[in-house]
């Protein structure tokens, strides 16, 4: 095994000008950190054009790494988190939407998660933050490859009355136990606490290799920036929380530098979906993109993404090749020297050659835009074919006349990123080619209804709320745990 890994490392260095053979041999099993933000828009950080949110740490991360400008997630959060963990479109694993507290469904134990596959390669694993793939014991991170878990099992707005106090609360968990019930401003310290846990895990796992999945609660509503950041930005409390996220990223990167792990660690930064625009001042911006969270317009699913690996990823590089969070699993497993099991079909592909500067071409022929089980669009290269109506966003957002028009619409995203000009009539061959790809995918995963390639979600009979029978103690003000 060791000799095969060394051979792999030497093969990689032959193609990459950014590391010596000795350095590559040392990174045969790199540490991997995935920082995953909730509801952050494409235009919310400096590297992707924000002029109102100060993000010096992310600016530096982009200068030292690679911006991926055509990186895709899903329209809503549970779906994206399923894609990260399984390497599949959410529809394929029967996770088409968002799980409420106490749901009978969640991630299926039969799925191979990225954490499980990395554990077989000797990785220490931890999830810190928002899980949202089911809150029953069978669905929690510790049952799906993560050694430890600390965070909220679902969105921070999914608050339920406490059996003891009647106050609306959300549970904070460690591993499989609810350790606190947070209400109101108790959430102000979430980003700080997640970051402290992340730094602690990195220090304790410094001998490596380790995989840290850090899905922040920020910047999902209700917006709760920490005391050190509240009122300090030029963009209200939403900007405050974006800037606290930036601080958190800086602490993680600084810890890796301090421990001299930076040259042996891949750090990815991305978001689960676009901004929740109907939340007004508490929402971000999709920048030049059309649409928002809940939509398959670019603004709903195209995310600000940065890859950082000093000595391996060319500093200041930019890639517009199509990739997405379904590709994390095969990429991370490949870099770890493992193989993805062939008993389950996955949709993602290894995009490490793109990160390492060995290619500029996408690892996938096409990207498919699912909203629930409905296939709404397909992209190949610069071409995006909308197959039917598309809503503009979540809850109350009205579709534009164009988005409700019948028939297909073709957009050239290189010529016009904002998806306003339909060029289908001028490019019938492109339309025909993308329609054929869409039909193939619909025959597999389905289009409106699950297809034959869809696998079941996990199921628990008689699910219970995490804190229905005995409430956990509520954290005292000012007390750290």
Explained architecture:
The protein has helices at 2-15, 21-26, 56-64, 77-86, 114-119, 190-204, 236-258, 298-301, 328-335, 352-355, 428-444; strands spanning 31-37, 66-68, 71-72, 105-106, 124-128, 148-151, 160-161, 168-174, 177-182, 210-215, 265-271, 305-308, 317-319, 323-324, 367-371, 374-380, 383-386, 409-412, 458-459. The longest helix has 23 residues, at 236-258. The chain folds into two domains: 2-355, Alkaline Phosphatase, subunit A (3-Layer(aba) Sandwich); 367-459, 2-Layer Sandwich (Arylsulfatase, C-terminal domain). The protein is an alpha/beta fold and 481 residues long. The protein contains eleven helices and 19 strands. Residues 1-27, 396-402 and 477-481 have low confidence and may be disordered. Strand 7 and strand 8 form a beta hairpin. Strands 1, 2, 5, 6, 7, 8, 9, 10, 11, 12 and 13 form an eleven-stranded mixed β-sheet that branches. The chain is globular, with a radius of gyration of 21 Å. Helix content is 24%, strand content 17%.
List the helices and strands and how they pair.
Elements: H1 2-15, H2 21-26, E1 31-37, H3 56-64, E2 66-68, E3 71-72, H4 77-86, E4 105-106, H5 114-119, E5 124-128, E6 148-151, E7 160-161, E8 168-174, E9 177-182, H6 190-204, E10 210-215, H7 236-258, E11 265-271, H8 298-301, E12 305-308, E13 317-319, E14 323-324, H9 328-335, H10 352-355, E15 367-371, E16 374-380, E17 383-386, E18 409-412, H11 428-444, E19 458-459
Parallel strand pairs: 1-10, 1-11, 2-13, 3-14, 5-6, 5-10
Antiparallel strand pairs: 2-12, 4-19, 6-8, 7-8, 8-9, 11-12, 15-16, 16-17, 17-18
């Amino acid at each position: 095994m060791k000799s095969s890994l060394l051979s792999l490392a030497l093969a990689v260095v032959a193609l990459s000008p950014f590391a010596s053979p000795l350095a590559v041999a040392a990174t045969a099993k790199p540490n991997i950190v995935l920082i995953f933000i909730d509801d952050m828009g494409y235009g919310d950080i400096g590297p992707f054009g924000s002029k109102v949110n100060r993000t010096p740490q992310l600016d530096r991360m982009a200068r030292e790494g690679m911006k991926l400008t055509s990186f895709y997630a899903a329209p809503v959060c549970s779906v994206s988190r399923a894609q990260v963990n399984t390497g599949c479109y959410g529809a394929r694993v029967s996770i088409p939407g968002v799980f409420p507290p106490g749901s009978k469904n969640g991630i299926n134990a039969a799925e191979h998660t990225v954490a499980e596959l990395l554990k077989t390669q000797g990785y220490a694993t931890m999830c810190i933050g928002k899980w949202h793939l089911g809150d029953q014991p069978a669905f929690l991170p510790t049952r799906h490859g993560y050694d430890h878990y600390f965070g909220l099992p679902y969105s921070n707005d999914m608050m339920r009355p406490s059996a003891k106090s009647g106050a609306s609360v959300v549970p904070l968990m460690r591993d499989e136990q609810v350790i606190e019930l947070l209400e109101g401003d108790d959430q102000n310290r979430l980003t700080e606490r997640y970051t402290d846990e992340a730094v602690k895990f990195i220090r304790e796992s410094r001998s490596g290799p380790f995989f840290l999945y850090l899905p922040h609660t920020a910047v999902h509503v209700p917006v709760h920036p920490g005391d050190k950041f509240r009122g300090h930005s030029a963009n209200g409390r939403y900007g405050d929380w974006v800037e606290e996220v930036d601080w958190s990223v800086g602490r993680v990167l600084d810890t890796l530098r301090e421990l001299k792990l930076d040259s042996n660690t891949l750090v990815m930064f991305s978001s689960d979906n676009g901004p929740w625009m109907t939340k007004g001042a508490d929402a971000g911006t999709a920048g030049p993109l059309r649409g928002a969270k809940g939509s398959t317009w670019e603004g709903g699913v195209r995310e600000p993404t940065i890859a950082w690996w000093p000595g391996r990823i060319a500093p200041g590089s930019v890639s517009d090749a199509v990739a997405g969070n379904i590709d994390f699993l095969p990429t991370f497993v490949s870099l770890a020297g493992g193989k993805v099991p062939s008993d389950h079909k996955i949709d993602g592909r290894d995009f490490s050659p793109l990160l390492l500067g060995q290619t500029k071409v996408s690892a996938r022929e096409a990207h498919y835009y699912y909203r629930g089980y409905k296939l709404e669009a397909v992209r190949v290269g610069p071409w995006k074919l909308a197959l039917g109506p598309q809503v503009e966003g979540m809850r109350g957002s009205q579709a534009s006349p164009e988005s409700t028009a019948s028939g297909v619409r073709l957009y050239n995203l290189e010529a016009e990123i904002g998806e306003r000009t339909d060029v289908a009539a001028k490019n019938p061959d492109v339309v025909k080619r993308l329609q054929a790809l869409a039909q193939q995918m619909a025959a597999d995963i389905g289009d409106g209804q699950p297809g034959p390639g869809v696998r079941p979600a996990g199921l628990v009979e008689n699910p219970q709320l995490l804190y229905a029978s005995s409430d956990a103690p509520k954290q005292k003000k000012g007390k750290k745990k």
